[in-house]
Amino acid sequence: MAPETEARWRSRATDSTVLNEDFTNQWWRSAVVYQIYPRSFADSNADGVGDLGGIAARLDYLAVLGVDVLWLSPVYPSPQADYGYDISDYRAIDPLFGSLDEFDRLLHSAHERSIRVIMDIVVNHTSDEHPWFLESQSEKASPRRDWYWWRPPRYGMEPGAPGAEPTNWASIFSGSAWEFDHGSGEYYLHLFSRKQPDLNWENPAVRHAVYMMMRWWLDRGVDGFRMDVINLISKDPGLPDGHHLPHQPYADGSEYYVCGPRIHSFLQEMRHHVFAGRQGKCLIVGEMPGVTVDEARLFTDPASAEVDMVFQFEHVQLDQGVSKWDYVGFDLRDLKASLGRWQAGLAEVGWNSLYWSNHDQPRIVSRYGNDKEYRVASAKMLATVLHLHRGTPYIFQGEELGMTNALFETVNEFRDIESLNQYAAITGSGVATPGEALAALRLMSRDNARTPMQWNAGPWAGFSTSPPWIQVNPNYSEINAAAAMADPDSVFHHYRKLIELRHTEPVVVHGSFHMLLPHDEQVYAFIRRLGDVELLVLGNFSSAHAGVDLADAAEWARAELLLGTPPELESSGRRLVLRPWEGRVYRRGIPGRGAVEYLDPI
Ligand code: NOJ
Question: How far is CA 48 from the centre of its chain?
Fold first, then answer.
């Protein structure tokens, strides 16, 4: 944080949420993170796959956008079974993406532009082609055998027979979480694909090998890590069976591996061995599926400082039923309840990550917005609402253009292992017809986020000069970076303004958060407050006009409009009217703060 900004907000601060904390080392509170999925970002060597050269060539674009941190999805050597989330060498760059020299140059160029770079580190599991696993698998007596979770078949059962798996756990990517190894007659655990065996963090040698490798990257100059599914590393060593759900071949074992018994001790040990002496320099983000608000507070409490922020999933699962493929519709009240609870839970201690999109989620404008008639308006409104919350916002590549879900027509157009496994599992078992399975994939597949970045209206959207590894969204001739940069009213420029606002307006970073209208089905509304400054943030989540009834609507209508279009105030003076999918941010000073209690809706 620039010293003048620091001084400015300190002089204004009167909110208890602000006074008790020391933010000097927490630069990431005012930062915006941009996630790059390298294989889909920009291809510099015409092989149809994005690479480090492509990223380097686009750094100026990112500097114009104004982001502070780049998170690179994995670029290490990998068989690419899960597109890099299956690492076979932690200390190199996959030739598909470039070389270590190129990486160092990219890091340097980013730093020259005051952009930090964090690595995606995947240490819950490795690839089954990692030398550690190959050695572990080679013989039962191998010193590395215990680096992974090997178990014999269930007592009395034929090895390899259905039901002989050591536990009944389902893999997150369909099927059993155990793979039978004919060589040794034992099974190994893989919470994700069979190409991603889980490391045994109970073994101290595993932990120290991981810590050494992380220090190696930090010494190279990287600015921190996004740690993949880091709350899954501690398993209940007894590996108990999970509760069987009706009509499911395998059970949910997550209670035995989500935030398991030693998770805090492992992360504190990591903090000690990896980050000691580097406080204030690194950003540590923990991706944590299934984490609760209470746990997140423990993980992010600066007193234990296990991670700087967790990356949680509750608000992007609200439209899902028993599984992510089971779409149940979206209700704005659920979103407010969820995000509001996270804001409140981390108000005094801890910190939120704020995101709509990443490489695992369908495009947000197609999901909680309207990607047709109101694509631009809804993409902007979604951005406004998210970026004005308290926490660190993340932008996933292309979100700043309002990129939409892909229009895959057949299953052959999908590339993602999770999607393809799901399709095979539900069509194979007769649970769904091919048409139903395809419909679910079109809506929820991760490939929606992974289509190539749309740079311009040229061939393959300017992503590559060869056919890309996954199809380009056909709407690239309309939705692309060149067009967006040239249009002052574009989604891109809206994101730029939001980032600038975070950098210049302390209340956005440090202000307290107060949800309004929790039961309104159309409008998302909240107040941010710091010292004598107050913001009102409004978002219309519908294709109709929406009235916002506030006791002091007339007063707000006269306040400074930071973002959005001028209001239409209805005659009563107690209602602000939003256009379809409109977002708006007002700012006002509060003279004689304390006397003003006009926040509640009528
Ligand atoms: C979470 C990552 O975001 C996802 O892409 C990956 O498939 C799993 N972890 C397994 O590493």
Answer: 25
pLDDT at 566 over 50: yes
Q: Cβ distance 522 to 542 under 8 Å?
A: yes
Residue type at 331 in one-letter notation: D
pTM for the whole thing? 0.94
pLDDT for res 3? 40
H/E element, 527:
strand 523-530
Distance between CA atoms of residues 403 and 409, nearest Å: 18
Q: Is pLDDT at 601 greater than 50 in this prediction?
A: no
CA 192 to ligand 1 centroid distance, Å: 8
Quick count: other Cβ atoms within 10 Å of Cβ 45? 16
Q: Enter the tokens of residue 305.
A: 């400082």
Q: How far is the CA of 414 from the centre of ligand 1 (A)?
A: 17
Q: Catalytic annotation on 326?
A: no
Q: What is the pLDDT of residues 254-293, one digit of tens each?
A: 999 999 999 999 999 999 999 999 988 899 999 999 999 9
- Distance of CA 103 to CAs 58, 97, 126, 221, 452, Å? 14, 9, 21, 11, 21
List Cβ neighbours of 204 (8 Å cut-off, separation of 6 or more). none
**For a substitution probing ligand 1, which of 85, 195, 396 has the most ligand atoms within 8 Å of its CB?**
85
Beta carbon of 360 within 6 Å of any ligand 1 atom: yes
Of the candidates 68, 82, 228, 582, the residue annotated as catalytic is 228
Side chain identity at residue 542, one-letter code:
S
Identify residue 102 by its one-letter amino acid code. E
- CA 235 to ligand 1 centroid distance, Å: 18
87, 122 in Cβ contact below 8 A?
Answer: yes
Higher pLDDT, 14 or 196: 196
- pLDDT over 90, % of the chain: 89
520 a catalytic residue: no
**Ligand 1 atom 10 nearest Cα:** 85
Atom of ligand 1 nearest to the CA of 446: 5
- Please give the pLDDT value at position 489: 97
**Residue 74 DSSP code:** P
Q: Tokens standing for 53? A: 């050269």
Give the Å distances, CA to CA, from 6 to 22, 30, 86, 130. 11, 10, 41, 46
Pairing of strands 178-181, 150-151: unpaired
Please tell me the distance between residue 85's alpha carbon and the centre of ligand 1 in angstroms.
6
Q: Does residue 598 carry a pLDDT above 90? A: no
pLDDT range class, residue 453, cuts 50, 70, 90: very high
Residue 431 has pLDDT above 50, yes or no: yes
Q: What are the tokens at 271?
A: 């903090």
